[in-house]
Amino acid sequence: MAEIAVLFVIKKIGIAVAGDTLKLAIPLFAKKTELKKVELVTALPVNMRQIKKELEIINAFLKELGMNGYKGEVVETWIRQVRRLAHDMEDVVDEFMYVVGKNKHKKSWACVKKIIKKPKPLFSLDEIATKADMINTELVELSKRLDRWTRPLSSGIYVPPTNYNSEQQLYLPGYDYSINDNELVGIDKNRQTLIESLRLEDCSLRIIAVWGMGGLGKSTLVNDIYKNEAIVSNFNCHAWLCISQSSKMHDIWQNMLKELCGEDNRGVDAENMNNRELRLELAKILRQKRYLIILDDVWLAADLLKIREVLVDNGLRKQSNNYNKN
């Protein structure tokens, strides 16, 4: 989802503007004779904090979109623009951390390298400050743009759909994910545990729960495995479904059937089936197959039990679950 990209860059900015990092940057800020845009460079930490605050508001808004199920071409386009801007800002933060770390001794640089990817190409502090200032301006315009174009839609077009969720926008099968394997850190142990569980020869129904607080990277971890052809090829069919708080069971079963039938090129009219027909058709399809089904963003155990009704005990189902503990 777009929330993942936004949340990720919020955390990176937090590291970049932390006291310890800025202390390392002081010598660079002090080299005013080497800087072409002194004012912009001096204002860089302030600009980054402002960007962080704006992204926090945007992240909260994206969550509301997901929970209330709002849709519309304008909003979806706006979400895509948010995602692109978040990736641009992530690059700026990486460049800043790289320049700061490179300027210090090896011990400091080793710490910096653990949290960033080496930017390509490398930029000067002047260029980094200029890009951050442009992103700050664009964020302000982005907020105005949404307000300007959604206000006329409030009477009828901007309405809740049956199964829309902002998380679903990013984590869909076939989506071109921006995070590469070499950019993922700290997940090796959990990744290996999941891979070993998926490779078991036992074909009985197996439920694997990936749980934790929001923002820990559960969906990112599961997707890293889901897009691994060597693993997915062990299954006859597979599907990725987003189960949000606003999702209805009819829509979940319908989407599951569409994905599974799409792989088999079967002409099943899922749109016109009732709950009973959907459940029977799903059971029929899965009965003779080894299958992998990802259930992302599961909030309630009751939803999991209902979905379990159609899962025939001859395959494997993997579930990624958002977990909130009160």
Automatic annotation (TrEMBL):
| InterPro entries given in the database record | NB-ARC (IPR002182), P-loop_NTPase (IPR027417), RX-like_CC (IPR038005), Rx_N (IPR041118)
Q: State which residue ranges cross the membrane.
A: none
Q: Respond yes or no to whether keyword Repeat is given for this record.
A: yes
Q: Which Pfam families match?
A: NB-ARC, Rx_N
Residue span, Disease resistance N-terminal domain: 37-107
For the keyword Nucleotidyltransferase, the answer is no
Q: Which domain of life is it from?
A: Eukaryota
Protein name per UniProt: Uncharacterized protein
Family classification:
Belongs to the disease resistance NB-LRR family.
What GO biological process term is on the record, naming one? Answer: defense response
Keywords (alphabetical) are: Leucine-rich repeat, Nucleotide-binding, Plant defense, Repeat
Residues annotated as domain NB-ARC: 193-315
The UniProt entry, under Gene3D superfamilies, shows: 1.20.5.4130, P-loop containing nucleotide triphosphate hydrolases
Could you cite one Gene Ontology molecular function of this protein?
A: ADP binding
